[in-house]
Design a protein that fits this description.
The complex is a heterodimer of chains A (258) and B (163). Chain A has 258 residues and is mainly alpha-helical. Chain A has 11 helices and no strands. At the A-B interface, α2 and α5 of A face loops of B.
Chain lengths: 258, 163
């Protein structure tokens, strides 16, 4: 069945906003789990401040999605009242934090991706998406300065730090192809000048990532496995546990406010 | 920024709101920050447009509440605070007075020209004025600040990031 035929343009845009919000809120929540567990005070602050930036992004995407839908749902309803299968985030965002090296390796891969993605989205014909992207890319640039630093420090550091971050990249590598795979709905929005062609981002992304990994004396892992499905609602076992914690309050006490 | 040719009542409201301070950095007013973008009056109803500095900045809600409170205390009943994302806030909008207030408060003000964000700029120590400083962390006490250290006087200090 051709899915392009059965998705209304409006709902394709709604789904797109929700997926982008899901990427942000899931990674934002993961980063928030570092609160008071950072390796030292400055990093604890950095991890949680980065978390805030991602949650802020999610709010903007969800608020816009709710406005497009126009059925009375709020950004909070979208974040807190959907189950795993309705989440559309890329899988790399939901993986557990692992050690600090794993968290920073993932952050680096995503920061490089976000720089390319938001530069593209800032050119969107959809004014709201372009505005959100215009803000997000400013934040990604300092996120990337930090994660790029850490990849080099850990890679070109001690034997143990090098081993840990190399392992992290090896474990993350199979989650990368999904970041550059387009869905039919998304392609429709690309054709309309609204969405970003993620396939086209890969060459630049690879060149930036490879340069840093080489400088960090790290090996580029081989592309011999790939896992995907996040954009179709097929997730790893980890997302359910994440949502169970993140959504607990609204599930147990519906409608609670600060 | 606000239209200098705006009418008298708008100018009065602007004057009134220029006393509202950033809840996290109380030496800065919203005007110094460049957060206050527009004030419009339509049939007695006031719409204040502000722009968020950072997407996840928890101070935005507090700023919004402070604006509403200030206007309510001055007797304005119908007030709406609207957030506008575009054009995206940049530290280039911070006023010269704001930069000096930050420095006197012990926070290095943002360097100008937000386009150059890939490399770290050379930051002057707000305590001793030395340019021999190093970045300790991209984040200080809030998302908008980075943590630096002066190699000359050895004091750590916050730097208001240039974005």
């Amino acid at each position: 069945m051709n899915r392009m035929m059965d998705t209304e343009p409006e709902s394709a845009l709604f789904n797109y906003c929700v997926a982008l919000g899901d990427d942000s809120v899931v990674l934002g929540h993961r980063l928030s789990e570092w609160c008071r567990n950072g390796p030292f005070l400055e990093e604890d602050l950095a991890l949680t401040n980065t978390s805030l930036d991602f949650i802020g992004r999610a709010r903007m995407f969800y608020a816009y999605a709710a406005e497009l839908e126009n059925e009375g749902r709020t950004e909070d309803d979208i974040a807190y009242l959907r189950d795993c299968r309705e989440y559309r985030n890329l899988l790399i965002n939901e993986l557990p934090n692992g050690d600090f090296a794993f968290t920073m390796a993932r952050q680096f891969l995503i920061d490089v991706y976000d720089m390319g993605f938001f530069a593209g989205l800032a050119q969107s014909r959809d004014a709201m998406l372009a505005a959100i992207a215009g803000k997000a890319i400013k934040e990604s640039s300092y996120h990337l300065r930090r994660s790029d630093d850490w990849v080099k420090r850990l890679g070109d550091g001690t034997e143990e730090s090098r081993e840990r971050i190399q392992n992290a990249f090896n474990q993350l590598w199979g989650y990368i192809p999904e970041m550059f795979r387009m869905s039919d709905d998304e392609q429709q929005l690309v054709d309309a000048g609204i969405a970003v062609d993620r396939c086209a981002l890969k060459a630049n992304w690879e060149s930036t990532v490879h340069t840093t990994l080489k400088e960090a004396t790290l090996d580029i892992p081989s592309e011999n496995w790939a896992i995907g499905g996040g954009r179709d609602g097929m997730h790893t076992e980890h997302l359910g546990f994440l949502l169970a914690e993140m959504q607990f309050l609204q599930r147990a006490y519906p409608g609670q406010k600060w | 920024m606000l239209d200098p040719n705006c009418n008298t009542e708008t100018a009065q409201l602007f004057e009134l709101l220029s006393s509202v301070c950033d809840p996290e950095i109380p030496v800065l007013t919203l005007q110094d920050l460049g957060v206050l973008r527009d004030i419009s009056i339509d049939d007695g109803a006031i719409t204040v447009t502000i722009t968020p500095t950072y997407t996840g900045c928890p101070a935005m809600d507090a700023m919004q509440a402070d604006i509403e409170t200030t206007l309510a205390e001055a007797g304005y009943q119908h007030v709406k605070v609207k957030q506008s994302l575009s054009p995206a806030w940049t530290s280039d909008w911070m006023s010269a007075a704001g930069r000096e207030k930050l420095r006197a408060y012990g926070i290095a003000p943002p360097v100008r020209h937000s386009g150059q964000t890939t490399k770290r700029a050379n930051i002057q120590c707000p305590q001793c004025g030395s340019g021999d400083t190093e970045c300790i962390s991209e984040f200080g006490s809030t998302a908008c600040k980075a943590l630096y250290r002066c190699r000359e006087c050895l004091e750590p200090f916050d730097y208001f990031k240039c974005i």
